Amino acid sequence: MPGFQFISRNEPVYLPFSRPKYKISMGLVALQLKDWIEADEYFYDELKEKKQLLISNYPEVFASRPGSLLAQTEVLALVLKHMEKYCPGVLKIEHDEVILPKLKWKFRISDFEESPLDLCGRFVQEDLCLMAPGPDGYTLEAASLCFPARWRLMDKMGLPMSAIHKPVPGYSEKLSRPVNSFFNRIDVDRPVWRVNWSLTTDPTMFQPVRQKHSASELPITSKNAGDQVYMRCERQTLRRLPNTGWILFTIKTYLDKVSKLNKYPKEAQNLSSLLRSAPTSLLSYKNINHVLEPLLIYLDELADHKV
Ligand code: HEM
């Protein structure tokens, strides 16, 4: 019997550049439950990276607040059930153990009585954030977050959505109200997903620091931009937990060199025009300014099939 088919990473899995104009939006789409968790060909490598991060940087990559245990336990049960059903052979549950046969890893569930979400984050590529309803909107109550894109868990724990997104240009004016109202309406049976994108010259998955580019970095030119600049796309899902009513937010990170757009001239052209139409506050927030000029030349050449 053929084994489970991991998603190929030869081509970019998500290219959220279907429009030529930048517009901040929720961009939520209905999610089929069978597609909730994704596993691609970097699955085992990323699990190993998570394991190392949990050893070296635990307080940076896992946090939980009192009162979140029930929802954490609910997430663990749901994800285990999902993985058994939709990723057959990748994971086995035997008595008190979760086993990853390929890596010869065994986790004792009872070792994670205080932090079931931590265990859950160890056998999926996704980062997992648990949100609880509160008087000021949903707040972040627990997270397994090994692959943050320039934010720190400890800065956001306990905060409501509006405060979490304070640095995001346009969020408070355009997204805060619709997002809060949407969160109140998310149905157990109707999960959703969206894709977020950024560009970076640092292909590290674990990026807790909103650093500016470092002086030692190779200068970006229109010749090397394709290999030195990466698209960092986050495939995010939102799902209401049936028992506690809390919301689970998952983030699956995809990094691809911009040169991978060479087969997608339309998307290259759209990215170029949406970077041109984006407000400067957004380009600064996304830390793109220092690569913008050479990147635009590179993208325009790709769009004209010259590269
Ligand atoms: C419908 C749901 C959501 C929408 C529409 C949304 C939208 C956004 C947008 C537009 C950005 C800016 C990204 C960029 O331009 O690079 C952002 C950043 C961010 N989002 Fe969300 N988001 C949602 C849910 C969440 C949830 C549930 C969390 C919970 C942890 C979260 C945490 C963050 C964080 C930490 C950042 C980075 C903020 C910073 O720079 O300090 N988002 N989000």
Number of helices: 11
Which range does the strand content fall in?
15-25%
Described by strand count, sense and barrel closure, the largest sheet is: 7 strands, antiparallel
Strand order of the largest sheet: 1-8-9-10-6-7-2
Count the beta strands.
Answer: 10
**Cofactors and ligands:** protoporphyrin IX containing FE
Q: How much helix, percentage-wise, in residues?
A: 25-40%
- Shape estimate: globular
Spatial separation of the terminal alpha carbons: 43 Å
Q: How many domains make up the coordinates?
A: 1
Q: What do the pLDDT scores average to?
A: 96
Taken in chain order, the helices and strands follow as EHHEHEEEHEEHHHEHEEHHH
Radius of gyration: 20 Å
Structural class: alpha+beta
Give unreliable regions as ranges.
Answer: none
Fold topology:
Layout (H helix, E strand, L loop, with lengths): L28 E2 L12 H14 L1 H4 E3 L4 H18 L5 E3 L2 E4 L4 E4 L7 H6 L5 E6 L6 E6 L8 H4 L4 H4 L6 H15 L6 E9 L24 H4 L1 E11 L6 E11 L7 H13 L2 H6 L3 H15 L4
Antiparallel strand pairs: 1-8, 2-7, 3-4, 4-5, 6-7, 6-10, 8-9, 9-10
Helix pairs in contact: 9-11
The chain binds protoporphyrin IX containing FE.
Description:
By secondary structure, the chain is an alpha+beta fold. It has one domain. Helices cover about 35% and strands about 20% of the residues. It has 11 helices and 10 strands. The chain has a 7-stranded antiparallel β-sheet. The chain has a 3-stranded antiparallel β-sheet with strand order 3-4-5, with no helix packed on it. A hairpin with a 6-residue loop joins strand 6 and strand 7. Helix 9 (about 265-275) packs antiparallel against helix 11 (about 290-305). The longest helix is centred in the first third of the chain and has 18 residues, at about 70-85. The protein is globular and about 60 Å long.
